[in-house]
Amino acid sequence: MIIPLSEDIAIYEEAAQCVSQHIQNTDPRIRSDDVRVEIFQQRGKGRRSFDLFQVAAEYEKLLLIAASRDLLPDGIEFVADAIVELQPPHMRHVRGGAKLLLEQSLTDEQAEKIATFPLRVVAATWRKGRSPARAIDLMARSVSRTSSPQKTGRQSFLRTH
């Protein structure tokens, strides 16, 4: 899985670990709890050793997370069923998540604005019970205070609930 903001990788790792703990299979011949999540943040010198083929042989399911495709280990194309590159959320994804998880309705403008913030900023500022307008104000102030806005946000409302 390729995510666009490396600063948000810990949030994706946490979500992947959570999901991996709940994967179950009713067929006793299949190792259903045999899942490994690996994070790749650097390439070349200083990168820890990782034997993709050995790990893939040992685990039934393997989820690799990186901020770019070139950070994934060599040989990934021979082992992976798919390489998924996550895209920024569309306004309707943000609106749907707000409705489902936070029980809030958003305007198109609010949803579009929220989608522009980094996941970690949205996760830290948008809480159940906090108005969307207040959350957006906090997101904007947080981003302008710490640095310039990032390229894209993520559906962090999945984590804030």
Task: Give a quick rundown of the structure.
The chain is mainly alpha-helical. Helix content is 43%, strand content 7%.
How are the elements arranged and paired?
Layout: H1 9-21, E1 35-40, H2 52-58, E2 61-66, H3 76-79, H4 91-102, H5 108-114, H6 119-125, H7 132-146, H8 157-160
Helix pairs in contact: 4-5
Short descriptors:
161 residues; mainly alpha; 2 domains; two-stranded parallel ribbon; disordered C terminus
H/E element order: HEHEHHHHHH
Distance between the termini: 23 Å
Low-confidence stretches: 148-161
Strand content: 5-15%
Rg: 18 Å
Question: Could you characterize what this model shows?
Answer:
The chain is mainly alpha-helical. 43% of the residues lie in helices and 7% in strands. It has two domains: 6-79, no CATH class; 91-160, no CATH class. It is built from eight helices and two strands. Strands 1-2 form a two-stranded parallel ribbon. The longest helix is centred in the C-terminal third of the chain and has 15 residues, at 132-146. Residues 148-161 have low confidence and may be disordered.
